[in-house]
Amino acid sequence: MLSIGQSFNTTGNLMRPTMTNSQHKRQPIKADGAAPAVSVILLTYNRADLLDAAIESILSQTMADFELIIADNASADRTSQVCQKWAAIDSRIHYYRRPTNVGRTQNMNLGILASVGEYVAILHDDDVYDLDLLTEWKGLLDKYPDAAFVFNAYRALDAQGETRTVHRAPLPLCSPGSAFLEGILFKRWRFDSPVRGTVMMRRRAIDQVGRFNERFESWSDVDMWMRLAEDFDVCYTDKPLITVRDAEVAPHQFADSIGHVQPLLERMFWDARMRHYHARPIRRFNEAIRHWSFVAAARAWHFACAVNRKLRSMRRSESICL
């Protein structure tokens, strides 16, 4: 069974009991008996110093019809105190702390399990959000009912907090899922994605394709976008509605070796290609060749990067000795 963890009310006492898959039932939570339109799931782990800014930018959204589920993956810093402080201020907040670290993917799935909104937004604790983010996202999903999820351009900051670049995707407001797969993802030879992991999804689409696959660990979101795009359209806005901090300010928390990550990504994209082209055998054969050429290119690129890092380290060591 999957433990949802603990939630606290405004006095800091336990509010929602521990729930399992079999016990969980969605219940209206607003005074008028209706569920909020959007469930925002904020994933957090040991980032208490950045959490205030993330929560404040969410609570200050121009759209107010949402619940905020804070999914704390057993943080060992002041995260609990920060979350309980905000829960005492705003009743839309529901704080869940996992007893032990369950991994990023299961933490997301448990957050979704606890949510009730028609739309489910996944947000990260180290980002800052434009005040119109939820309005823009929901507006696009309302306008395009066949779309499973929406994402946006991202503003990336440097270590001094200045804009370094804006990451954009060459997409219209709404694309057929096949165009997103064939025109964007299947052309990325390094097996990455323009979707950073912060999106708004339609609940019925999640119900149809299933939850995030824990097999792919911290990269399960890319697999989810590809599964959703197989059956639904994809929305995108070119507005940089999310600001991403520099790695010096918010270090990455899943620094697995490339020797571990690369096979996961290769397998994920292989599965997606074979699934997408299963009814087109000739194209499927050609895509298999393309996939393995990408594997060779990506591995060569990672090897060259590793050699370059090693050489730079050796040069630094030599300069210190001199």
Describe the structure.
The chain has 322 residues and is α/β, with parallel strands linked by helices. The protein has a domain at 38-256: Spore Coat Polysaccharide Biosynthesis Protein SpsA, Chain A (Alpha-Beta Complex). It is 40% helix and 19% strand. It has 9 helices and 10 strands. The protein is globular, with a radius of gyration of 21 Å.
Question: What is the topology?
Answer:
Elements: E1 38-44, H1 48-59, E2 66-72, H2 79-87, E3 93-97, H3 104-114, E4 119-124, E5 127-129, H4 133-143, E6 147-157, E7 163-167, E8 174-175, H5 177-183, E9 199-202, H6 203-209, H7 220-231, E10 233-244, H8 258-276, H9 281-321
Parallel strand pairs: 1-2, 1-4, 2-3, 6-10
Antiparallel strand pairs: 4-9, 5-10, 6-7, 6-9, 8-10
CATH architecture of the domain at 38-256: Alpha-Beta Complex
Taking the sheet with the most strands, its summary is: 10 strands, mixed
* Mean pLDDT over the full residue set: 87
Low-pLDDT ranges: 1-28
**At the first level of CATH, what is the class of the domain at 38-256?**
Alpha Beta
Record field, number of beta strands:
10
Q: Per DSSP, what share of the residues sits in E-state strands of 2 or more residues?
A: 15-25%
Enter the CATH topology name of the domain at 38-256.
Spore Coat Polysaccharide Biosynthesis Protein SpsA, Chain A
**Which structural class do you get from the secondary structure elements?**
alpha/beta
Shape: globular
Under CATH, the homologous superfamily of the domain at 38-256 reads Spore Coat Polysaccharide Biosynthesis Protein SpsA, Chain A
> Which series of helices and strands comes N to C?
EHEHEHEEHEEEHEHHEHH
Straight-line N-to-C gap: 60 Å
Count helical runs: 9
Helix content: 40-55%
Radius of gyration: 21 Å
